[in-house]
Design brief:
The protein has 5 helices and no strands. By secondary structure, the protein is mainly alpha-helical. It folds into 2 domains: about 1-95, no CATH class; about 95-124. Helix 1 crosses helix 2, helix 2 (about 35-60) runs antiparallel to helix 3 and helix 2 (about 35-60) crosses helix 4.
């Protein structure tokens, strides 16, 4: 129960920050690209990478912080951060073909699934 509460608190914060970043981007940046999503994905990747590296390589952190911040906050803020971090980990571990496959599959399949969802929704 404690874990679910920690994840929920982080998720609540991450989802709200994502909303505010998108509002900011819509008001202050060009509407030519989805800059809010781009900003969320890039900052989320930066935040998750820094947090996980810091708490696994530099300091001993309570596992609860990982639940709140990595799983909850970053998970609600952007799942792209998890994908990016996992791809970098594969590269660091010398699994270059797995990293490339992860990169290609996530991008191609996700874009394809989005197209499929759009087609399905439009057909209903």
């Amino acid at each position: 129960m404690r874990d679910a509460l920690l994840i929920g608190v982080g998720g609540f914060a991450g989802a709200n920050v994502r909303y505010w970043v998108n509002i900011f981007a819509a008001r202050h940046l060009s509407p030519s690209l989805p800059f809010g999503t781009l900003l969320v994905n890039v900052t989320g990747s930066l935040i998750l990478g820094a947090f996980l590296a810091w708490t696994t390589e530099r300091v001993l952190a309570d596992p609860g912080y990982r639940l709140v911040f990595a799983v909850g906050f970053c998970g609600a803020y952007t799942t792209f951060s998890s994908f990016a971090f996992e791809t970098i980990r594969l590269i660091e571990q010398g699994h270059l073909s797995a990293a490339l496959a992860n990169f290609v599959l996530n991008n191609v399949l996700s874009l394809g699934a989005t197209v499929g969802g759009v087609v399905l929704a439009r057909a209903i």
